[in-house]
Task: inverse folding
């Protein structure tokens, strides 16, 4: 029993020495091949710095939008989702940029629709461009293009027709009610108020509420757009691309990994060659 424990202890000690030797060997290889690591690191950082500091500066605009369905709409129950819009917009190539942006389309580097989590009727328009000052105008053109999509245009036309019909019916009802109120006002001078069976004041109040509702509906119809902004767009003050620190960090990390790989491969072949020459 004691002999077994002694053997286990010796085995553990031997393995520990082997591990220490292995770590020492690894460090020795790194020190021996340090110039490989230094050269690769220098070249990688130099290339990354040239790329990061010579690439064009890109600015970004983000605008939160919503698909607005008025409460007076009856037949249109569901609107396209943000995912539908993103799918229809698709990939933005040079030809599509030229159709969307009438001015300086070549300065637009990206346009996309991003679905906002938890809300299918809200989305974000993201535009990236080489010129920061042109981003607000680019947003207007992007919204106009989205509004021209068949899916959006057809739904918007349906909703506007519904609002027009609702306004027509409400206006007719209001006109008739107003005439009745005028007749009541004339009769008040010759008849007892109790003879009407209702309060003329309540009737006037209902007509007034109807007029307020008609004015609200007409104003909503006049200003109605299916796509409406949720807040003011955000435009980055400083460039979002190129991300210089990220590029330099990745270049540094990548060069070290490649350098270590090259160093150990060189050491392996060197030792293999020495063993081959030492054989009789």
Result:
């Amino acid at each position: 029993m004691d002999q077994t424990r002694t053997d286990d202890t010796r085995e553990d000690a031997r393995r520990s020495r082997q591990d220490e030797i292995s770590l020492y060997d690894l460090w020795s290889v790194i020190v021996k091949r340090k110039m490989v690591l230094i050269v690769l690191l220098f070249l990688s950082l130099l290339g990354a710095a040239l790329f990061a500091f010579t690439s064009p500066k890109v600015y970004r605009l983000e605008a939160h939008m919503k698909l607005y369905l008025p409460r007076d709409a009856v037949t249109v129950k569901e609107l396209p989702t943000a995912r539908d819009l993103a799918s229809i917009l698709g990939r933005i190539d040079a030809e599509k940029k030229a159709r969307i942006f009438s001015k300086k389309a070549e300065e637009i580097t990206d346009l996309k629709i991003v679905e906002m989590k938890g809300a299918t009727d809200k989305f974000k328009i993201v535009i990236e461009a080489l010129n920061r000052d042109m981003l607000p105008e680019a947003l207007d053109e992007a919204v106009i293009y989205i509004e021209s999509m068949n899916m959006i245009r057809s739904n918007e036309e349906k909703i506007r027709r519904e609002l027009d019909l609702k306004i027509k019916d409400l206006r007719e009802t209001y006109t008739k009610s107003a005439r009745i109120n005028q007749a009541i006002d004339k009769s008040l001078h010759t008849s007892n108020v109790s003879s009407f069976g209702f309060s003329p004041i309540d009737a006037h109040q209902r007509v007034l509420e109807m007029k307020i509702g008609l004015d609200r509906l007409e104003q909503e119809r006049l200003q109605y757009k299916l796509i409406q902004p949720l807040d003011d767009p955000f435009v980055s003050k400083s460039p979002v691309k190129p991300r210089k620190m990220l590029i330099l960090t990745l270049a540094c990390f990548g060069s070290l990994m490649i350098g270590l790989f090259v160093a150990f491969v060189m050491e392996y072949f060197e030792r293999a060659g020495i063993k081959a020459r030492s054989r009789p």
